[in-house]
Amino acid sequence: MQQSYDLDLSEIAAFVALAEAGSFVAAAARLGRDATVVSRRIQALESRLGVRLADRTTRQVVLTEAGNAYLRRVRPLLEALEDANGEATEIAHGVPQGRLRLALPASFGRMWLAPLIVDFIEAYPGIRIEAEYSNRFVDLVGEGFDAAVRLGTLPDSRLVARKVADRRRMLCASPEYIARRGAPTCPKDLAEHSCLIFTGKPDPHQWEFLEPDGAQLSVAVEGPLVCDDAEALVAAGIRGLGIVYANDWLVGRELKAGALVPVLESWRMADEGAIYIVVPSRRGMPSKTRAFTDWLSSRLSSPPWRGL
Questions:
Q1: Residue 1 contacts by C-beta under 8 Å, 6 or more apart in sequence?
Q2: Is residue 133 within 8 Å of 105, Cβ to Cβ?
């Protein structure tokens, strides 16, 4: 029997919803249809393709090998169609629409970007955000991200970067630690103190400062905790375990509450960097991406962690 490969987008959409939701009831809720309608569409698609895409049990739906292969190919097509529909609506109505994929740094994203993204969605209900919170350095073009927020110093790149805020390095400790051990008066004093070491730094056991003339001073430090999680080091600092090397955005609330106090304030730390929004290209930038970059830039122009 000759197979028909005519596309029926409602069947494909039902299959993708089923694969992502894991059940007919959940897929039906996502599509706003009855579960029996979703079931009929899946059966029609399988009949059209001549292959079983999913095995059904009373508890769950499991994709077959053919189903997994089919999902990998059709999901990006549906997403691209959704984006195309959104862009066409944009042109017709001038309102940003469609899916916006964002790569956001983990701790900074959770602390300061997540609330702003909720505000953004409320302001632009036609945009659907897909956000990945990770410190992984993503390939925007290769992985299909529309924009990313990055911290620090950016390498040379074909990507377009927009600086939205400064990032300041600083040292701080709990009042209890200072009362017990005293406050260092110059960077070399740190050799006599307990320092909390962040391994995300290129040379974790060397803390760099800038002399008044711009020369760099490097100090070797040691301490009771070495960790790749900055938030865990802040928590240890609050408990009085030692001096924390941190970004101002990471400890803004703790400084405001008095749980931490600045150390060596008169000394400027090296490697301050900045906070950037990065996009693949400025040319032909969709209005949904432009709306987000403008929104975030305006919200971070006066960094909220400094105005607590």
A1: none
A2: yes
- Whether residues 155 and 283 share a domain: the answer is yes
Assigned domain for 1 exists: no
Range of the domain at 34: 9-89
Q: At what angle do helices 248-257 and 230-238 cross, to 10 degrees?
A: 20
Q: Give the mean pLDDT per block of 10 residues along the chain (308 residues).
A: 64 90 86 89 91 82 91 86 72 74 93 94 93 86 87 74 89 97 95 94 90 86 94 96 94 95 90 85 78 92 80
Q: How far apart are CA 96 and CA 293, in angstroms?
A: 12
Nearest-angstrom CA–CA distance, 197 and 228: 8
Same structural domain, 157 and 289: yes
Tell me the whole-structure pTM to 2 decimals: 0.66
Q: For residues 174 and 254, state if they share a domain.
A: yes
Q: Tell which residue, 184, 224, 218, has the closest CA to residue 201.
A: 218
